[in-house]
Amino acid sequence: MQLLLPILLGLCLVGCQTETRPDTADPASAPAGQSVATMQTGAAQLAEYLPQLQGKRVGLLVNQTSLVGEQHLVDVLLAHNVNVVSIFAPEHGFRGDHDAGAQVDSGTDSKTGLPLWSLYGANKKPNAAQMQQLDVVIFDIQDVGVRYYTYISSMHYLLQAAAEQNVAVLVLDRPNPNGAYVDGPLLELEFQSFVGMHPIPLLHGMTVAELAQMIKGEHWISDAEQLTLSVVPVSHYRRDMPYVLPVKPSPNLPNAQAVALYPSLGFFEATPVSIGRGTEFPFQAIGYDKFSLGSFQFTPVSTPGAALTPPLMNKPLLGTDLRQVNAHGLNLSYLLSWHALFKQQQQVFFTSPEFMDKLAGTNQLRLQIEQGLTEAEIRSSWQLDLQQFMLQRQPYLLYDR
């Protein structure tokens, strides 16, 4: 009999969103009488990687999450006389202040004077001239463990460019706040896009360093055997460990609740329904202007992080407030309920079906919803793929194998 529940790693069910100090282990997880070792991100372990950078020309793919304590990694490396040559910026920019989908321009970093190259927009991959100035490039960005979050797509293109130009890559690892879960459909390569590059589940349960090793090991880039890849794992880390991000990873994921709901609400981007962009609680509410499943009232407006005309801007909406719900893993009930409401009202729900299929990594999820399958039936359809993925990823895991 197949499991009809998401595969869960470790012991974390609802505790994944418990408040805890950034970069520390959860004291409640330690056996009685034992001291708790301090968790350290890869970037915080300077002794592990500074020797590798001496005498090297160094590039960085980083953003506002790339911190060592209160300092940005760029400033830390410069203070240690590392020869930083250039900075690459992903979606949302080097400072993390660009809207989703907004153009990120190349230029010069105002603080350091270093060349700043955009990897979001027309050029998603570093070009040969940029890479030939480097001996090693560092990837240090906080991910949230959801396939359609594009930082791992930027990492993919960085790994590809490095393999082609014989530049070493160093990944400084960070915890995955959704790391306890492996769930959702696997991406089919015909639906590959920048919001889904790899044949992995929507929730893959891996850190960026583990995923980088898998991209190389499974030859998901060409010339993978030529890539020199090294990683600095998070110390004293378990996949089920509560971890509250010290810096919001992007403008519309401002807190742990938004990060926890993101896997479930991201699909609404392919519908006319608002998920709170343009409010103080993005990815923490669902609403619509013509009919509703709830009585929670909110009005999206143009705000920093949602200045590019958020859906239903300046329209009073009714819906559901999710700020206090117990959010964890992938919950399809929101999508199914709203689809059923739109069907009852004889309105089209998936107004961007091609984008929905890119987000899902397959057209099967959309078709299953339109055919009226239950959540249990939908989950049953991807269980075998999840089991095979769990075996496939095993050689690349760095934590609690």
Topology:
Blueprint: E1 7-8, H1 46-53, E2 57-62, E3 67-68, E4 71-72, H2 73-79, E5 83-89, E6 107-108, E7 115-118, H3 128-131, E8 136-140, H4 151-165, E9 168-172, E10 181-186, E11 201-203, H5 208-217, E12 229-232, H6 256-265, E13 285-288, E14 296-298, E15 317-321, H7 333-344, H8 353-360, H9 364-370, H10 375-381, H11 383-393
Parallel strand pairs: 2-5, 2-8, 5-7, 8-9, 9-12
Antiparallel strand pairs: 1-10, 3-4, 6-7, 10-11, 13-15, 14-15
Organism: Rheinheimera maricola
Pfam families: NamZ_C (PF20732), NamZ_N (PF07075)
Protein name: DUF1343 domain-containing protein
Average residue pLDDT? 88
Tell me the name of the CATH class of the largest domain: Alpha Beta
CATH topology of the largest domain: Rossmann fold
Q: Could you give the distance between the termini?
A: 25 Å
How many helices? 11
Anisotropy-based shape: globular
The percentage helix is: 10-25%
What is the β-strand count? 15
- By secondary-structure content and strand pairing, the structural class works out as alpha/beta
How much is the radius of gyration in Å?
Answer: 21 Å
Written as H for each helix and E for each strand, in order along the chain, the element string is EHEEEHEEEHEHEEEHEHEEEHHHHH
Biggest sheet character: 7 strands, mixed
Low confidence ranges = 1-36, 96-104
Structural domain count:
2
Q: Into which percentage range does the β-strand content fall?
A: 5-15%
The CATH architecture of the largest domain can be named as: 3-Layer(aba) Sandwich
Protein name: DUF1343 domain-containing protein
Domain Peptidoglycan beta-N-acetylmuramidase NamZ N-terminal: 58-256
Domain Peptidoglycan beta-N-acetylmuramidase NamZ C-terminal: 261-399
InterPro entries: NamZ, NamZ_C, NamZ_N
